[in-house]
Amino acid sequence: MTRPFNFSAGPATLPLEVLQQAADEMIDWQGCGMSVMEISHRGPEFASILKQTLGDIRETLSVPPEFHILLMQGGGLAENAIVPLNLLPPDASAPVMNFIVTGAWSQKSFKEAARYGRTHLAAQVQPLPLSIPAISQWKLTPTPAYVHICSNETIDGVEFHEIPDLQSLGCHAPLVMDCSSNLASRSIDWARVGLAYGGAQKNVGIAGLTLVFVHESLLTEALPICPSVFNFKTVAKHQSMYNTPPSYAIYITGLVFQWLKRQTHGNLTGLAAIEARNIQKAQSLYDFIDASDLYENKVSVECRSRMNVPFHLRHSSLNQNFLAEANRAGLRQLQGHQSVG
Ligand code: PMP
Predict the structure, then answer these.
(1) Using CB atoms within 10 A as the burial measure, which of 230, 243, 283, 341 is most buried?
(2) Burial of 326 from C-beta contacts in 10 A (0-12 / 13-18 / 19+)
(3) Which residues, listed in sequence order, are joined to residue 149 by a DSSP beta bridge?
C-alpha cells in the first residue's frame, strides 16, 4: 500500500503506527473478545481506556491540576456557542465578550457568540502581509466576560507564537482559546489561559471528539438555556460520562497521545520533540517558499503558522496544472480551503 502525502487539515493524516494498532485491536481489544466500538462505556475496559487517555493528555500537555479536561462532542464550532452559554452570567447587563479576529475561524466565533450576549471586536488581523496587532493595541472593554482568540487560524495560516498575557494589560478576564489546529503541536503556557478547546480530528485523533480544558474557577452556573450535555460543570462532575462519550474517538486519541509520548528529537521527548520537529519543518518550508519565484506566502513572519502553511502560486493561471501534477505525485488536498483557493 502506498500512502499519499495527505495535506488535509482535518480529518488529517494519523501516524501509521496508531492506525496499525487500531487495526490489530479492532475486533478484539486486549483479549476481551470485543471491539472498543462494542464495549459499554460504563464497563471496566472503557474505564481503563478513559483513565489512561486523560492521564496521557494531562502529562503530555503539562495540564495543571486546576484545569479539568472535558471530552465532549460538537467540534470546535459547537464550542462557539457552548462557551458563552457557560461563561456568561444570566442577566442582560452581563459583561461583554471580547474577540480578537485573526481569520476565518475567529470570525465565526465572534459571529456565533453574538447570539448569546454582547460582543466587541477588540482587534483584527491586518492586511497584507497578514499580521496580528500587538496586544498593547487591543481595544478591550473595561471588564470583559472573556477575551477570545484562535491560536492558529487554519485557513489563513496565522498563528499566535506566544499566548497573549492579558494580565500585562491589567485585564483579569479569562482568555478563551480555540486551539483546534495547533493543539499538541507546541507547549501551552497554561497560566495565561482560562479555557482552551479544539476538535480531535486535526492533531490528536478522529472526528467526533472535542477536547475542552477549563480552569476550575470557570465552572460556575451556566445560562438556564444551556443544554445539560454541554454544561461544563455537569460534564466535569461526571468525568465526561454524563451521557455516552464518543468512546472510539477517545480510544484513538489515547493511542495518539501514547505515540506522542514515544516521540524523540535529539535528546527531547514527547511534546518538546514534536515542537522542535515542527519548528524545523515549518522553517524549511517557509525558507523554500520565500526563495521561490513560483510560490508566495502572504503572512508576516512573526505570526506565520507552523501548522498550516498557505502558499499561492504567483501566477494563478498555473493553479489547475499545479494541482493536477501534485495529485499525480501523491500530494493530496493542496488546494486550500474553498474560501481562499
Ligand atoms: N476552529 C478552527 C481553528 C478550525 O480549524 C476548525 C475546523 N477546520 C474549527 C474551529 C471547526 O471545528 P469543527 O469542524 O470541529 O467544528
Answers:
(1) 230
(2) middle
(3) 177
What is the sign of the dihedral through the CA atoms of 56, 62, 68 and 73?
negative
Let me know if 105 is a catalytic residue: yes
pTM across the whole model:
0.97
Distance 31 CA to ligand 1 centre (A): 36
- Measure the CA–CA gap between 253 and 5, rounded to whole angstroms: 21
Nearest-CA neighbor of 178 among 204, 144, 212, 202? 212
Which parts of the chain sit beneath pLDDT 70? Answer: 92, 340-341
C-alpha cell at 54: 486523560
Whether 202 is catalytic = yes
Site to probe by mutation for ligand 1, drawn from 105, 107, 111, 156 as the one with most ligand atoms within 8 Å of Cβ, is 105
Closest by Cα among 38, 32, 34, 3 to 18: 3
Residue 31 φ/ψ region, left for φ over 0, alpha for ψ in the -120 to 50 degree band, beta for the rest: left
CA atoms of 147 and 75, how far apart (whole Å): 20
Measured in whole angstroms, the distance separating CA 143 from the mean position of its chain's CA atoms is 26
Whole-number Cα distances in Å, 43 to 48, 57, 297 = 9, 21, 50
Cα–Cα distance measured from residue 187 to residue 162, given in angstroms and rounded to the nearest whole number: 10
What average pLDDT does the chain have?
96
Asked if residue 105 has its Cβ within 6 Å of ligand 1, the reply is yes
Q: How far apart are CA 282 and CA 284, in angstroms?
A: 6
Is the CB–ligand 1 distance for residue 76 below 6 Å?
A: yes
Burial 41-68 (b: 16+ CB within 10 A, else e): beeebbeebbeebbebbbebbebeeebb
Residue type, 330: G
